[in-house]
Design a protein that fits this description.
This protein is of the alpha/beta class and 568 residues long. Among the domains are: 46 residues, no CATH class; 97 residues, no CATH class; 116 residues, Polyamine Oxidase, Chain A, domain 2 (Alpha-Beta Complex). The protein has 19 helices and 23 strands. The strands form six sheets. A seven-stranded mixed β-sheet has the order 10-9-19-20-21-18-22. A five-stranded parallel β-sheet has the order 12-2-1-16-23, with helices on one face. The protein has a four-stranded mixed β-sheet with strand order 15-14-13-17. Helix 13 packs across helix 17. The chain is globular and about 70 Å long. The protein starts with 5 loop residues before the first strand and ends in a 23-residue tail after the last helix. 44% of the residues are buried.
């Protein structure tokens, strides 16, 4: 029987799978991953409906962390040839000639090497023997051709716009001549005056999101382009949402910076340097797996299994026991049979919602910790997928358009419930079964689990989505060929309720040296995919360094320079 330390990991999303891989690659700890559903990737999964794939929420693969970028390319190398739509859409792609991919060496190959007395299992690059981790083999390959190979990361142009009153506006918003013409020059002048007022007389108290946005964009622009959409997302007024959410999503961004960046884009052709230096919210290119974000995590999951880790689906953590101030045992339940199993462990990584984790702790944490955890709130999410013959986008003064080039479109109109539209053809041509003859879109609705919209039948939601897009002038009903609905509970941790006291939970968790809260729901923080991964990587760093203070995990996406703002 193996005497290797055991790490139990709750959740097979980006954070959980990153932790599992890092443990195998860099330590002698064996990860056991328990995933409540039967899907890989959490909110970063790819849902396949009759060959048409849905990316839940949209996942750009871009990070200012070189560590994360290299990690991604290790699994899915960058493309070396055009994709199916490159020439027809005249995309400018930065190709590479070759790539290096690292894979775990199967135990059988290691046994054979030991029998033969060899110490290297390479093909020129050799194997990388890490102190206590699983052996890995580095393979130098020609950069993949996406038309012939599946393990490939595409380089894609980014276009996100706001659709408002039958006009398109850039996102993030910037005041250019074209925007001014669509808004009306008087309205634009008033927006400029409002912005100047906000700069001269800023609100001193930025506790809540309305003040945060007004100080950066002025009241008039905030009320035109930020307020209604944000309140649609969260279901409450901006004056009730903590400004921390805005600081994470648009840190360093303002109307002035958006305008300056637009001017720089017109004058500069240095794509790579510009990408590295611009605000994350303003990037114009990103990487994307051929078959959506789920392909990345399915690849990682397969590698975790190959390296000796274990992933169990349809099982969830229902109990966590501590003894002498450390997690010593985790209880899991199989959803189908309700059978339970107790698993002794040396480490526990939690990506489950904080509210659920605290309820499952034995002995129970203090009353204050339980109160804060119980008061945390979430926003749930559903996507209505519509397969169309074509779009019918009506913009004032133009003929209806059968296609658009946007990855996603923000729907500002308050008269409809849909918040955002994804055009999956533009994420990757391979996301659509018949991209030549159909357009595959996702209508995103922000809901609360159990409310009227959440409980609406799938066929009725397809009808609702169709009617709403007809109403705003985006499609025609007769062009709808098929539809489906995908629900995602607890997609967004909300910065309301007891969030302002989250430090109470943080301090409690930090007092248990072998408990690691990682990822979006694990930390109740609106992290991007790369930030969730970094919390997992740094948790493993802490194990290797013998560090018991895990406060550094909570600094990810707050002060680190790879986020929205680059340091001087």
């Amino acid at each position: 029987m193996s005497s290797r330390p055991i790490a139990v990991i709750a959740g097979a999303g980006p954070a959980g799978l990153t932790a599992a891989y890092e443990l195998l690659a860099r330590t002698d700890v064996r990860p056991l991953v328990f995933e409540r559903t039967h899907a890989i990737g959490g909110i970063a999964q790819t849902y396949n409906y009759k060959g048409n794939r849905i990316d839940i929420g949209g996942h750009r693969f871009f990070s200012k962390s070189e560590r994360v970028m290299s990690w991604w390319f290790n699994f899915l190398p960058r493309q070396g040839a055009p994709a199916a739509d490159t020439e027809e859409l005249e995309h400018e792609i930065e190709y590479v000639a070759e790539s290096i991919v690292r894979r775990f060496v199967p135990q059988s190959a290691l046994d054979d090497a030991i029998d033969l007395g060899t110490s290297s299992l390479g093909d020129g690059e050799g194997s990388v023997g890490l102190a206590a981790g699983v052996q890995t083999r580095a393979e130098r390959r020609a950069a993949p051709d996406p038309e012939r190979e599946d393990e490939v990361m595409l380089h894609r142009p980014r276009l996100s716009r706001i659709y408002y009153k039958r006009h398109f506006f850039p996102y993030p918003i910037g005041i250019t001549f074209g925007v001014a013409r669509r808004l009306g020059f008087l309205n634009t002048a008033l927006i400029a005056l409002s912005y100047c007022k906000a700069q001269l007389l800023p609100r001193r108290d930025e506790t809540y999101l309305d003040a945060f946005f007004i100080n950066r964009f002025g009241r008039r622009l905030y009320e035109t382009f930020f307020r209604d959409y944000t309140e649609k997302v969260w279901g409450i007024r901006c004056s009730q949402i903590r400004a921390d959410w805005g600081a994470q999503r648009v840190k360093g961004l303002s109307l002035k910076r958006a305008v300056v960046q637009a001017v720089k884009d017109l004058l500069s052709s240095g794509t790579k340097k510009a990408q590295e230096e611009r605000e994350t919210s303003l990037i114009t290119r990103f990487f994307y797996p051929k078959y959506g974000p789920g392909q990345m995590w399915e690849t990682v999951a397969a590698e975790v299994t190959s390296g000796g880790g274990e992933i169990r689906f349809g099982q969830r953590v229902v109990g966590v026991t501590t003894e002498d101030g450390r997690v010593c045992e985790v209880e899991v339940e199989e959803e189908a049979t309700r059978q339970r199993e107790r698993i002794p462990c040396d480490y526990f990584f939690s990506t489950m919602p904080v509210k659920e984790l605290v309820k499952q702790m034995s002995p129970a944490p203090s009353a204050e910790v339980r109160e804060v955890a119980e008061g945390l709130q979430y926003r749930d999410f559903l996507t209505v997928g519509l397969l169309l013959k074509k779009l019918h986008v009506r913009v004032k003064g133009q003929e209806p358009a059968a296609t658009v080039r946007d990855n996603w479109i923000y729907v500002q109109d308050a008269g409809v419930q849909v918040g955002r539209i994804q055009v999956f053809n533009n994420w990757s041509p391979y996301m659509v079964a018949d991209r030549k003859n159909t357009v595959w879109i996702g209508l995103e609705y922000f809901v609360n689990q159990g409310d009227a919209l959440w409980r609406t039948r799938d066929d009725e939601l397809v009808k609702l989505g169709t009617a709403e897009l007809e109403k705003i002038g985006f499609i025609q009903k007769d062009d709808v060929l098929d539809g489906c609905v995908l629900r995602m509970p607890k997609a967004y941790p909300a910065y309301v309720g007891t969030y302002e006291r989250l430090d109470v939970v943080q301090q409690w968790a930090s007092s248990i040296p072998n408990l690691f809260l990682i990822g979006r729901n694990g930390m109740h923080r609106y992290n991007n995919q790369d930030h969730s991964m970094l919390t997992a990587m740094m948790a493993v760093d802490n194990i290797l360094e013998g560090r018991t203070d895990h406060s550094n995990l909570w600094e990810v996406n707050v002060d680190m320079v790879y986020h929205e703002e680059k340091s001087a």
